[in-house]
């Protein structure tokens, strides 16, 4: 086996642990010393944990007449662009670790692709799931959706995608059963980001809450500007939520939490000057179509309501955010 092509799950190891692995691969191990198998077992257990070792080997090779196709593949932060050139940035903006990919072949030339993403934590798994919700829940994992040709769910630190290629209708049963099988082999549940608890409850659309860190995820969710005018980084935590009442939109709430009060203040001033320069002192502006944007600085957070139906609604949403 080539040193440049390590086996799964070694591809998921961080660089420090992987360096130790390569040292052992390049040297023979004498009898009477610890075996290579034992060394690798310790390294994998240290890096991935016991549950992680069993997860991928427990994925079924066959489901409802659909059989494993070809070799499994694994991509990490360094190689993800090889798998999804053009979409990798969305995952890399989170604490993505690696993704396990398995293909299944079914009737005709139809295929199913199973992707299991290790996002590093349950908050990050919720985050990547939450940024692109469009379809109805199917009750799998801790959050799910199922639409034409695509089933997505998250559980613990894993985000799972099951996608049909070909006859979507013919693949539906196998997709659902495969998702349920994967859900069963993830032993634990995780917690949602604690930041979600600050959101006002009245009017909140629970299926339209997103958690993320970077500007690429923000602009995919709600475009604000071509530049990073809120100075988001991998150290910022963001919540975006939609509010409605009696089927009428109330507005969109964005809360950004920075590392320090000073960074929040700097970002707040930059945002006001870039987004509403004529009303930067007040932090609120009425657009030509009669919608309000109101922004406030509170400690290390910048809190903004966009496209509110009136000023009072924006102020009410902001006032009900929990500290």
Q: What is the C-alpha radius of gyration, as a whole number of Å? A: 23 Å
CATH homology superfamily of the largest domain: PknH-like extracellular domain
Averaged pLDDT: 87
Order of helices and strands: HHHEEHHEEHEEEHEHEEHEEEH
Number of domains: 3
Fraction of residues in helix: 25-40%
Assembly classification: single chain
Beta percentage is 25-35%
Segments where pLDDT lies below 50 for 5+ residues? 1-7, 15-50
Identify the overall geometry.
Answer: elongated
Total beta strands: 13
State the name of the first-level CATH class of the largest domain.
Alpha Beta
* Structural class based on helices, strands and sheet pairing: alpha+beta
Task: Describe this entry's structure for a reader.
This protein is of the alpha+beta class. The chain folds into three domains: 10-48; 51-185, PknH-like extracellular domain (Protein Transport Mog1p, Chain A, 3-Layer(aba) Sandwich), CATH 3.40.1000; 194-319, no CATH class. Helices cover 31% and strands 29% of the residues. The chain is built from ten helices and 13 strands. It has helices at 15-25, 36-48, 50-57, 80-83, 88-92, 122-130, 168-185, 215-221, 261-275, 311-319; strands at 62-63, 66-76, 98-105, 111-118, 143-147, 150-155, 158-165, 204-212, 237-245, 248-257, 284-286, 292-298, 301-308. The strands form two sheets. Strands 1-2-3-4-7-6-5 form a seven-stranded antiparallel sheet, with helices on both faces. A six-stranded antiparallel sheet has the order 8-9-10-13-12-11, sandwiched between helices. A hairpin with a 2-residue loop joins strand 1 and strand 2 (66-76). Helix 1 (15-25) runs antiparallel to helix 2 (36-48) and helix 2 (36-48) crosses helix 3. The relative contact order is 0.09. Mean pLDDT is 87; it is low at 1-7 and 15-50.
């Amino acid at each position: 086996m080539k040193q440049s092509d390590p086996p799964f799950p070694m591809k998921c190891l961080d660089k420090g642990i992987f360096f130790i692995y390569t040292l052992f691969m390049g040297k023979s191990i004498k009898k009477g010393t610890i075996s290579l198998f034992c060394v690798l077992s310790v390294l994998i257990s240290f890096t991935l944990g016991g549950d992680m070792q069993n997860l991928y080997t427990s994925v079924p090779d066959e489901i409802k007449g659909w059989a494993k196709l070809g070799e499994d593949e694994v991509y990490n932060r360094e190689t993800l662009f090889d798998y999804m050139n053009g979409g990798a940035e969305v995952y890399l903006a989170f604490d993505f670790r690696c993704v396990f990919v398995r293909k299944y072949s079914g009737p005709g030339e139809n295929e199913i692709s199973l992707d299991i993403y290790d996002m590093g934590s349950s908050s990050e798994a919720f985050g990547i799931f939450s940024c692109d919700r469009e379809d109805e829940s199917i009750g799998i994992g801790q959050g799910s959706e199922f639409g034409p040709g695509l089933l997505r769910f998250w559980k613990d630190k894993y985000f799972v995608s099951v996608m049909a290629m070909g006859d979507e209708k013919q693949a539906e049963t196998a997709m659902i059963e495969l998702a349920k099988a994967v859900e069963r082999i993830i032993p634990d549940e995780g917690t949602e980001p604690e930041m979600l608890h600050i959101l006002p409850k009245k009017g909140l659309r629970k299926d339209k809450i997103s958690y993320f860190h970077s500007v690429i995820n923000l602009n995919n969710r709600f475009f604000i500007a071509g530049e990073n005018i809120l100075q988001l980084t991998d150290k910022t935590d963001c919540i975006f939520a939609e509010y409605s009442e009696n089927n009428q939109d109330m507005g969109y709430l964005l809360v950004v939490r920075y590392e320090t009060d000073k960074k929040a203040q700097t970002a707040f001033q930059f945002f006001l000057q870039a987004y509403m320069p004529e009303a930067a002192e007040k932090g609120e502006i009425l657009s030509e179509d009669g919608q309000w944007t109101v922004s406030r600085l509170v400690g290390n957070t910048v809190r903004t309501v966009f496209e509110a139906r009136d000023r009072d609604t924006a102020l009410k949403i902001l006032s009900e955010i929990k500290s």
